[in-house]
Design brief:
single chain; 183 residues
């Protein structure tokens, strides 16, 4: 039968929100949603690989590494607050691992030896503070698996990183540490 593979995967979707399940969407909707989630995650990881490569090559950052504190906190907190399957949790933690790899490369290659420990400690402290903030937000505005809070805080987290990179690009007149394609 031509659709055997699709039928065998019909109950293996990444994230089916209860609100989606109530609407009883067609299977094609869920497959498209799965593809978009995987594509977004893949682009995210590729960006980090490109940033890591540029940071090593240029020995320069496109902004302070402390921008990563909130993103790393987000990925740790929501890996456990929003996920319902081991695969989802592993995906969030994989993103965290790439963040951690980028921070390690940034501290090692873009900061002078005398500042590395202080920057690493500030970053670790920022991650802990971020975890407390996300926990507080989830308690203040609870929702189903913290999905609404995760969505809005995820968008807000990208603003300082993106605009900070653009600001450094304009201020320095250089793409050292990043590129127009990455941005």
């Amino acid at each position: 039968m031509p659709f055997d593979l699709a039928h065998s995967l019909s109950h293996s979707h990444l994230i089916v929100q209860p609100s989606d399940a109530l609407l009883n969407p067609p299977e094609s909707y869920l497959f498209i949603q799965d593809f978009l989630i995987i594509a977004c995650g893949t682009l995210y990881l590729l960006c980090y690989l490109f940033y890591i490569t540029r940071t090593i090559r240029d020995r320069h950052l496109s902004g302070p590494v402390e921008y990563m504190c909130a993103t790393m906190s987000y990925e740790i907190f929501y890996a456990f607050a929003t996920t319902s399957t081991a695969f989802e949790r592993v995906a969030f933690l994989a993103w965290f691992a790439f963040d951690l790899a980028f921070v390690a490369v940034a501290v090692r290659f873009a900061y002078p030896a005398g500042k590395r420990r202080r920057v690493a400690m500030r970053t670790a402290g920022g991650v802990l503070l971020g975890l407390a903030v996300f926990w507080g937000l989830a308690r203040r505005w609870p929702d189903e698996r913290e999905q609404v809070t995760a969505f809005w805080t995820g968008i807000v987290l990208q603003l300082p990183i993106n605009w900070g990179s653009l600001w450094v690009l304009v201020r320095e007149g250089s793409t050292r540490g990043h590129s127009l394609e990455i941005w």
